Structure formats: structure tokens, C-alpha cells
Amino acid sequence: MNRKNEPIGIFDSGIGGLTVLKEIVRRLPGESTIYLGDTARVPYGIRSPETVTRYSFENTRFLLAKGIKLLVIACNTASSVSLDAIRRSVPAPVIGVIEPGARAAASATRNKRIGVIGTDATVRSNAYPVAIRSIDASIEVFSLACPLFVPLVEEGWTEGPVAELTAETYLKEIRQKDIDTLVLGCTHYPLLKDILSKIMGPGVRLIDSAVETAAAIQDTLEAQSLLRESTDQAGRQFYVTDSTEKFVRVGERFLGRQIDFIRKIELESEV
Ligand code: DGL
After folding, report:
1. Which of 19, 47, 139, 247 could join 210 in a cystine, given CB atoms 3.0 to 4.6 angstroms apart?
2. What's the whole-model pTM score?
3. Going by CA atoms, what residue is nearest to atom 6 of ligand 1?
């Protein structure tokens, strides 16, 4: 098959990466996609870098076997700790969510003070501060882990008093840092955008890594002459490692569209 017509492969620890898929579909509706959500082992955000890297390789092997032309690591945690290792071992282009988000934040800030929120593992990895400061070393970066946001979003509690109080409590510290830009460094956080922007106020620009990543994918496909040529309708396949029911129910909310093709699979472990 013509390489251009092969699908884009996307993996995440679970459902959250659908925020990235949604932006890819919005920007590149003609591209076919295969999404893998490792729902049996979510969350990655509380695990060690070694474990997350092992899971990332297993996900990658599954998608490569499907014949993809480009790999997207939609999970911030997996991108933070395993992007370099995956990139070194995969023959196709690999796009993570950290670099696009860091680039957008570095160009958005005026006062050179940026906040980053994410899972524990993402914050501990320091991946966002390193990426932002490699673009402009004079930028100060303030990171904060907000672990309760993921279960809140999965419950569908993206508005109302519980979500508001949780966000207010977490963001209190970062609001005192005089930042003008805040990176939503986790797949789930774009669904809390309304609350986060209300709490941070109009002077703080929110950077949605999902939007920036979709733009980076388009740039890479164009630069490598890999944009799809076929005019047939683009395929949308979903694979999960746990039951399909919850993924479909919550996923359709994340995605804002129906999920028609979904299969439960077993990943082959390295050992
Ligand atoms: N997908 C993860 C991320 O973006 C959040 C969920 C998890 O902890 O696995 O960091």
C-alpha cells in the first residue's frame, strides 16, 4: 500500500488521548487513524518511568504491526518519560505532546513566567520545564501536579462545585506566581478548560497540548510528503486493553462523536 494512505497510530494510557485524536480529526479529517487506549493499566501518571516506558514500547509494537505511517504518543506521562527511547527505535516519525505544547507556551508568554500542570509522573520528569527552557533559557517555569483532575474528568465532573473547589485548591499556589501562560500538560485537562480559565482569569493564556500536537502532526506529514492521497472515507479504529463498554460511553463524550469500530486486545509483553 502507498505509505501516504497508511493510518496514523495514536496511543494513550486510556481514554484521555481522545482529546488529541479529536484535534487530529478536526485538523486532518482525511487521515485514517488507529487509536490504542491501554485501559487495563491506566493510570500511567502514578507509575515509575521504567514501567511507563515498558508499557509504551508494548503499545508501540502493537501499532507498528498495524502498518502506521506516523506514531503519536498522546499521553503526556508517556511522552515525558519514553519519547526519546521510542523515537530511537521506531522507523516512522514519532510525535509526542510535550514539544508542541512547550513551543506554543514559549511563544505565548510575554512576562516569561509559565505554569505547567500535569500528573505526578509528568511533573517529576521535568520534561516541560526542560523543553521550554531549551527554547528560551530566560523563561521561569512553575510546575504543579493535580492528580485528582483525572478521576474527576473520567466521572464526567467537569463542572460544578466539586470540580471548582478542587481546581481552586490546586491552583492557589500557581496563581501567586504571576504567570501569564498555563500549559494543560495532561490529556484530561482540556475538558476542564472552562473552570481553569475562570480561576486563572483573563490575563492567563491556557495552552492546550492537544491542539498544538495536531498542528505538529500536520507539519510533519507535509514536510515528509506523507499526507493521505486516497479520497475514500478515512477509517477510525479503536483498540483497548480492558472492556469496551466504559471506553465507548466516556469516549464518545471526549470525542464528541460515535465510536463504531472497537476491539479489546491483549498486548504482548516484552518478557
Ligand atoms: N494520559 C495521562 C497523561 O496525559 C493521564 C492519565 C494517566 O495518568 O494515565 O498524563
Report:
1. 19
2. 0.95
3. 43
